[in-house]
Amino acid sequence: MTASATEPATPEAAELFAELPLAQPSSFAQWRALTGRVVKTMATKGELIVAFVTPLVFTLGFYLPLRFVMKLQGIDYAQFVMPIIVLQTMAFTMLSNAQLAAFEAMTGLSTRLQTMPIGTLVPLTSRICAGLVRSVTSLTGALLFGYMIGFEFSAGVGQAVLFCGFSLAIGTVLAIGADGLGSLTKSPEQLSQALTLPTLIFGMLSCGFVPERSFPEWIQPFVRNQPISQFSFALRDMAADGVSWGVLWVPLAWLIGLTVVFTPFAVWASVRRS
Q1: Backbone phi, then psi, for 3, in 5-degree steps?
Q2: Residue 155 per-residue DSSP state
Q3: Which value, to the nearest 10 degrees, does the dihedral of the CA atoms of residues 29, 34, 37, 40 take?
Q4: What are the pLDDT digits (tens) for 79-116?
Q5: 3 state DSSP class of 154
Q6: What is the per-residue burial (b if ≥16 Cβ within 10 Å, else e) of 65-86?
Q7: Digit-coded pLDDT (tens) for 188-236
Q8: DSSP 205
Q9: What mean pLDDT comes out for the span 15-42?
Q10: Which of 13, 64, 85, 169 is most buried per CB count within 10 Å?
Q11: What is the DSSP code string of 42-99?
Q12: Measured between alpha carbons, how far is 255 from 237 in angstroms, rounded to an integer?
């Protein structure tokens, strides 16, 4: 007669399994594995190449049509337009993160990970960190192509580092909010369409492409105070003579406010049971 499944293991079996190491899940190892999986996928599918080349499309599309008009107004358009090119590349990262989160939710991967002994925030942080890799790649391309049209940092290394750090912070915060939306919608196509419209509206109705005086007076308060304009003001000063606290505090407040709103939302959307 065979032993029942509920009976205790025999001494021989206990000795056999005693030599095996106890499983000790590591959140860091899990994060590294999931982040590496996404980054490897981006590299093998050419997404990082697209992320690097996309700023070239923005540079040619934004700089070439308006450079002569702005030159007549005494504006160095390469310096003027570079912040909005960088912000557009960060928006590209936002869209990519939203699609990734929606795809994982749609295919059931997010639900599957919730049933496994994985740290609660590991899937979310792995997607955000993979998005940061994409942002760094895009920012590198944007600066390279920007130098080709005459953009340069005039305020020294410190302001250049601040420019890059602030740009990546903006991209990361936007990616966090988009990740939360992606986890909820579970539809990459619909989410991409939904996020594209506000990105275009805030981008076009900003001081990133043209000065505030180029807009009708009735809309100038919105154009001047909305976050994309405030981000572009700070980035423009960082690349020129250095940003002052009087200019920096408003975009910094926008960034902190968006972080406070987006982070809890993204965490809730990521850990909730569907």
Answers
A1: -70, 145
A2: S
A3: -80
A4: 999 999 999 999 988 999 999 998 888 888 888 888 88
A5: coil
A6: eebeebeeeebebbbbbbbbbb
A7: 778 887 888 888 889 999 999 999 999 999 999 999 999 999 999 999 9
A8: T
A9: 79
A10: 85
A11: HHHTTHHHHHHHHHHHHHHHHHHHHHHHHHHTT--HHHHHHHHHHHHHHHHHHHHHHH
A12: 17
Exposed/middle/buried for 271, CB within 10 Å: 0-12, 13-18, 19+?
A: middle
CA gap 48, 61 in Å, rounded: 21
State how far the Cα of 31 lies from the Cα of 23, in Å rounded to an integer: 17
CB count in 10 Å sphere of residue 100: 23
Q: Which residues contact 21 (CB under 8 A, 6 or more apart)?
A: none
Residue 97, C-beta contacts closer than 8 angstroms, at least 6 positions apart:
127, 128, 131, 175, 178, 179, 182
In angstroms, the CA 85 to CA 234 distance is 14
Residue with tokens 């308060």: 221
Put simply, whether the predicted model's pTM sits higher than 0.70 gets the answer yes
Helices (H), ranges, 11-46: 11-18, 27-44
Query: Dihedral angle at the C-alpha atoms of 62, 192, 134, 61, nearest 10 degrees?
Result: -10
